[in-house]
Amino acid sequence: MAAPRMFKLCLLGAPGSGKGTIASRIARDFKLKHLASGDLLRAQVLSKTELGNSANQFMQAGKLVPDELVVGLMLAELTKVRTTPWILDGFPRTREQAEVLHKEEKLDFVVSLEVPDDVIIDRIKGRWTHLPSGRIYHTEFKPPEVPGKDDITGDDLVQREDDKPESVRKRLEMYRAKTHPLKEFYDVLGILRVFHGTESNVIYPRVHNFLKDLIPAYGGPF
Ligand code: G5P
Ligand code: MG
Question: Is 169 marked active-site?
């Protein structure tokens, strides 16, 4: 019998639509490696690498980081996980990124989260992040055990620079212009599945059901 193929999933969605929340649940439940481009970029910024220094100005302004920087970073990460099934969160984000990725890796499925903008703007105000790990909290939806502190390390939590309302609005515009059209790219390939909703706790069980039926065909949960 042929060895099961590696499962390769991607999550599309506007800033604040719950990609990080839902991708980490998928990663936990189906044992996929969670690769979030924003978290990887923020780690580069924290470490003050050349890439991080170049990316920082774009991120703070709520703009997309240039394709060549992000593609280089993400393809390098993907070479580290050749034997592990994975889920991408936040990458690809432009047609150019999707085309390069498609040449290198064939995605099995793309899950798109559709959450109304007013819900997103409201929820981002309450987000707190542990920058080194990418763990996310929310004052009401997912409060940390100790206010202002990461559950695992006890480090201080911070509000992301790009979570200021002006920056969030720019990121939403950028999403509509550059990333939303990727739905068509993946729809044409026949691998797109869209989930609408306003609450991650309602959307996730539907995503879970969908994947639970799909993943056994690939030999998982892994
Ligand atoms: P990121 O880091 O990829 P965004 O803008 O795509 O950032 P973001 O903001 O990380 O996306 P998310 O992951 O979709 O949002 O959402 P989340 O963090 O899970 O949820 C948002 C908040 O709501 C959290 O506090 C969560 O707890 C809470 N929440 C979740 N569900 C619910 C709910 O049901 N109810 C309530 N009340 N709360 C909830 O990218 C950052 C920057 O990096 C660069 C860009 O500059 C980008 O702006 N970048 C790239 N640039 C170019 N190309 C790429 N591929 C790039 N990737 C990143
Ligand atoms: Mg995120």
Answer: no
What is the longest distance spanned by two Cα atoms in the chain? Answer: 55
The string of pLDDT tens digits covering residues 117-147 is 999 998 998 999 998 899 999 999 999 999 9
Give the span between the Cα atoms of 42 and 131, in whole angstroms: 7
The structural domains of the chain, with segments of one domain joined by +, span 8-117+196-218
Measured at the CA of 70, the angle between CA 68 and CA 76, to 5 degrees, comes to 100
Nearest CA to ligand 1 atom 23: 123
Q: Which of 25, 93, 123, 135 is catalytic?
A: 93
Q: Which residues of 91-109 are buried (b: 16+ CB within 10 A; e: fewer)?
A: bbbbeebbebbeeebebbb
At the topology level of CATH, where does 8-117+196-218 sit?
A: Rossmann fold (3.40.50)
Helix H or strand E encompassing 110:
strand 109-114
Structure pTM? Answer: 0.93
